[in-house]
Amino acid sequence: MVAQVKTNNKGFTLIEAILANIILCGAVLAVSAISTRSLSETRLNRQYEVAASLIDKQLCLIDYTGIDQFVELGRMEGVVEQFEPGYHWEVTAAEQDIDNLYLLNITVTWVERSRLRRLSVDTMLDGTGMIVDIEQE
């Protein structure tokens, strides 16, 4: 008579261990891909914030000096190399049919990873600025 030995297996089999490792590796790769993408999008978001800040500064300057004087000066574009990457801004102003009203377009462009990025703003300004000429009597 052959005696049957009953064994209690309390560990994992080799196949279960391999499958657990595969699932763990997949989860680690997914998390690292998400974090890499997040860092890339954060950098791009910062570049758009810098471009919006440059547009805001340009609009404040134009509003302060007055659109009439700005158009007379003729400086309608420039480059800001203070930030990485370099930003190029361009302003176009078109006088409207209504007196002293200008349609203003400010566009900021930059190159990020050999791809041209652009942020453009349209607004209307009247022809009076904050600088007031004081007549001397």
Oligomeric state of the chains in view? single chain
Average pLDDT works out at 83
- With strands numbered from the N-terminus, the spatial order across the biggest sheet is 1-2-3-4
Structure class = alpha+beta
Helix content: 40-55%
Strand content: 25-35%
- What gross morphology would you assign? rod-shaped
Provide a count of the helices. 2
For the sheet with most strands, the description reads:
4 strands, antiparallel
Order of helices and strands: HHEEEE
- Number-wise, the strands total 4
Span between termini: 131 Å
Number of domains: 1
* Rg over CA atoms: 31 Å
- Ranges with pLDDT <50 over ≥5 residues? none
Brief description of this entry?
The chain has 2 helices and 4 strands; from the N terminus they run ααββββ.
Describe the structure.
The protein starts with 13 loop residues before the first helix and ends in an 11-residue tail after the last strand. Strands 1-2-3-4 form a 4-stranded antiparallel sheet, with helices on one face. It is built from 2 helices and 4 strands, in the order H-H-E-E-E-E. The chain has one domain. It has helices spanning 14-65, 67-73, and strands at 77-80, 87-95, 101-112, 115-126. The protein is α+β, with helices and mostly antiparallel strands and 137 residues long. A hairpin with a 5-residue loop joins strand 2 and strand 3.
